[in-house]
Amino acid sequence: MVTLENGWVPSRSSDRRLTESNITNGLAMNEAFDGSTSVFSYLDIPPLRSSRIHLRPVRPGDYPFLYELAVKPEDGFRWRFRGSQPSFEQFVQGLRSEIHCMYLVERIQPCEPIGHVSCYKAEFKNRNAFVAIQGRGELCGSGLLMEAMELFVDFLFKTWEFEKLYAECPAFNMGMFRSGAGRVFEIEGILRGHERILGRSWDLYVLAIFRKTWEQWRANGEMARADLLVELGRDESGAGVAFEEFATFLSTRIPGLDRFEVLEPEMELVGDAGLDSIGVIELFDLLEGLTGILGDSQIKDCSTLGDVYFLYLQGSPLSAAGKSLNR
After folding, report:
1. Residue 48: inside a domain
2. How far apart are CA 205 and CA 207, in angstroms?
3. SS3 assignment, position 3
4. Which residues of the chain fall below pLDDT 50?
5. CB 209 within 8 A of CB 167
6. pLDDT in the model for residue 54
7. Same structural domain for residues 103 and 24?
8. Contact at 8 Å (CB) between 209 and 127?
9. C-alpha closest to that of 43 among 31, 60, 57, 25
10. N or C end of the chain: smaller count of CB under 10 Å?
11. Do 16 and 139 share a structural domain?
12. Closest Cα partner for 129 from 139, 121, 118, 117?
């Protein structure tokens, strides 16, 4: 384990004193290390795990799963090969082409791979790179894949000095992310009729995630969670608010829900309410702020606004005043 002792930082060229000028990431200025503290305890290492999924480096044993994911007839057209089927050997040979880093996305309960995320064509001089995600088609709209991308983009921005991350998205996939335009990402360009798939031409969208925009979106989420505790926190008897008040709050925080005059308990989240992957993950992020960590099985059973409200009622019966807003 590497430690910093007596205020010195190991250097190949020469030793240099630990000073205010080279420690700016939240450390107490001019504080000397006592020799027992690991440097890693002072680093804000971004997590690659949530309550439902975690990301880990891709290993050779994962190649068969990734290959099947890429060439599966019902899903393959959405992703890199657009329905073509390279041999397994060709797939493995090109898997890491231009790749900066790549992680397998695993569901925690049950433990199983569901996709992968990658960063490629990284240009460190220009501080930009491309990102991509590929996942099992039946999970589109569940929020799991968006949750993986959320963890991955956080990781990229906090680990490297990227200012901008690009993503390419064919029009038939844009429905999964449409609510994020202007809030999470910008549409920088549209290549008209660029993709020829399933007998017709599709536009290709070039999306850009800017560091400042991303950080603001994440901060807005934290503020919404804090507001949730204040407005929907339980009273001393443990009682929650009525569904109407719960739904009104959601309509002011989740883009798309504000277009309805009345939200009904039986409304399907993805169908009737029209939430995309970003809306789903924002909804459950909010709910976790009030009820505590949600398991995948709990979220999987939530298909309507009534289900979400029931999950809220099952949360920890703490009053808003008694809850800590520190996360």
Report:
1. no
2. 6
3. strand
4. 1-33, 316-327
5. yes
6. 93
7. no
8. no
9. 25
10. N
11. no
12. 121
- Residue 77 burial by Cβ neighbours in a 10 Å radius (0-12, 13-18, 19+): middle
Residue 33: give the domain boundaries.
3-42
Output the domain CATH number for residue 162. 3.40.630.30
Residue 237 lies in a domain: yes
| Token pair 């979106």 in the structure block, residue | 217
Tokens of 289: 């702020």
Tokens describing residue 276: 């995309």
| Secondary structure (3-state) at 8 | strand
Q: Are 66 and 58 in contact (CB under 8 A)?
A: yes
Count H helices and E strands in the chain, helices first: 10, 11
Q: How far from 52 is each of 143, 202, 224, 292, 302, CA to CA, in Å?
A: 10, 33, 21, 13, 14
Structure-token pair, residue 55: 């990301």
Q: Which amino acid is at 63?
A: Y
The model's pTM: 0.76
d(CA 210, CA 24): 23
Residue whose tokens read 């205020």: 7
Is the separation of the CB atoms in 289 and 228 below 8 Å? yes
Distance CA 106, CA 112 (A): 5
Number of domains into which the chain is organized? 3
Q: Are strands 200-210 and 186-197 parallel, antiparallel or unpaired?
A: antiparallel
Q: What is the pLDDT of residue 27?
A: 47
What letter does residue 61 receive in the DSSP assignment? Answer: G
Following DSSP, what letter does each residue of 90-107 receive, concatenated?
HHHHHTTTTEEEEEEEEE
Q: Which two tokens stand for residue 96?
A: 């890491």
Q: Residue 128 and residue 309: Cα distance in Å, rounded? A: 41
pLDDT computed for residue 185 by the predictor: 95
SS3 188: strand
Please report the pLDDT score of residue 8 as a whole number.
Answer: 41
Residue found by looking up tokens 């020469």 in the block: 14
Cα 64 to chain centroid, rounded: 25
